[in-house]
Design goal:
The structure is a homodimer of 299-residue chains. Chain A is of the alpha+beta class. Chain A has eight helices and ten strands.
């Protein structure tokens, strides 16, 4: 039998989801996109998301725990932004090894509360469970958000010919940026209010991993210009492709609207790069990317 | 500085919640009850809950994983029932050590899907993360549910003079019952539709731990008759008090309605015991109970 490593994250998830019965008719989006999308009101969908960060994988014991707490919440805010939505309510589940001090956990909670408040959201509950050493600290976030039905954007709706854009710069996040990034909520609201994005997701596992996911979800392919990638200072295109934890928006735009976007963006977001990196093609004409972050390959 | 063990679970939670800003005005119930209660529609509240179960604490590696999956979902269904509500959408986060096989995880997912379907609920997403050995398997469940505003019952609304009831029998759950119990959803719906329960919670950490929590949340005390506790076959009253994982309903009833409840219950639920175990008194006249399950004392 193949190990989890050999199967890889995407195949493990596929095999597990195959155990579920058919999705109910009122589910707008089920497993596979950034968030589940379920009925809420006449004009809004509700977004549901869970996300775990674990000591040794997403942060180290020596970090400033206030920054770790910020990151735990900001990752989910970024997931909601990736669909045009806003976060609302958070629940926090922690499994705590006995070696942790109450001071470290209080700092963690302060960071989480700061990030929630900065996005007009609230932590409203959770659960704590003790685990025996030498287990790592685990923080699992669950959140609800809302998105206007007119602003919902999925990763599965890119079309052949669409132009591929990314916000900001990529690479080198592990030097520190991964702990105190500002999720692209304003940018996402603007893009979806103006109906620019035909498909969108946030870059958490690296462009080399996430762009193929967007393409696969949309049943299309892509061609990108690696020399066009906007790299953070001191980063190579290889790092920009593979490092991950960028939390920038990756989105596609209909070719008829790409020029309008490029004209309006600098007025709306001066100083924030917007880069056209390529375009969507038929599946069988796609270039291949390998790399990025596999949650089972690097435990 | 005191360790997490010395502080105890309730004090750790209190210290962490003190880091949060004041609750927003539209939050009906925040941290501290079984679930958070947030706005949903004109006639319904939404219930939000997370719950983690961890290998070595809540189940052992050798268990039938289909039963472990059932338990993971059923615990949350029970939490919703404890407030008069029903589960709707589930998200599942797993942190998976490399030693687990895909077969074990598939069985786990089947058990979760079975339990969700049995309660007209669905698993709609989640996240998997690899962790390095020797970490335990961690399963974190997040769920939303709904409760009619007219049926919401909290643990914080017991009144002096109320009569204390429990459903079913207590004790000895670890012999196996903790893995395939049926949450008391029908009973909860009936109790709340008929407005019998003045306060309610489910028994997960043992009566000795949970009854004082209900009393503290309600700012009251209790007197119970230990010889009246309905014990599972072969269990002592000590086990009934302390074992935990009973997933029965603990609730209070106004004295003027207790007799009506005792008359109607056997007709509605033949074969399911309903036991009056005592009554609510002023805080300073309370008896004391010690014991039950502390998540930091037994990691």
């Amino acid at each position: 039998m193949k190990s989890m490593h050999e199967l890889g994250e995407d195949e493990v998830v596929r095999r597990l989801l195959a155990q579920l019965p058919p999705a109910p008719h009122d589910l707008r989006v089920g497993p596979g996109d950034d968030c589940a999308v379920v009925p809420f009101s006449r004009t809004q969908w509700q977004l549901l998301k869970t996300d775990a960060i674990i000591e040794g994988v997403h942060f180290l014991r020596g970090e400033n725990f206030r920054r770790v707490g910020w990151k735990a919440i900001a990752r989910v805010v970024s997931d909601f932004a990736a669909m045009g939505g806003m976060a609302r309510w958070f629940l926090v589940t922690m499994s705590i090894p006995p070696s942790y001090t109450i001071d470290e956990l209080e700092a963690l909670y302060q960071g989480m509360a700061d990030c929630a408040a900065a996005h007009q959201a609230s932590i409203v509950g959770g659960e704590t469970t003790g685990v025996s050493s030498p287990a790592p600290l685990g923080i699992s976030i669950a959140a609800t958000g809302v998105v206007k039905k007119s602003q919902l954007v999925l990763r599965s709706t890119a079309q052949r010919g669409d132009v591929i854009f990314i916000t900001g710069k990529l690479g080198g996040s592990l030097a520190g940026r991964h702990l105190d990034f500002l999720p692209r909520v304003r940018e996402s609201q603007w893009l979806t209010q103006h109906r620019f994005a035909t498909a969108m997701m946030d870059l958490s596992d690296g462009l080399a991993k996430d762009l193929p996911r967007l393409a696969m979800a949309s049943s299309v392919g892509f061609q990108i210009d690696l020399s066009a990638l906007p790299c953070h200072d001191g980063c190579s295109p290889h790092q920009a492709l593979n490092d991950g934890e960028d939390y920038e928006l990756l989105f596609t735009v209909s070719p008829s609207r790409a020029r309008s976007l490029q004209r309006k963006w600098p007025l709306a977001f001066p100083g924030i790069p917007l880069t056209c990196i390529g375009h969507i093609v038929e599946k069988d004409q796609s270039m291949q990317l390998r790399g990025g972050w596999d949650h089972f390959a690097h435990p």
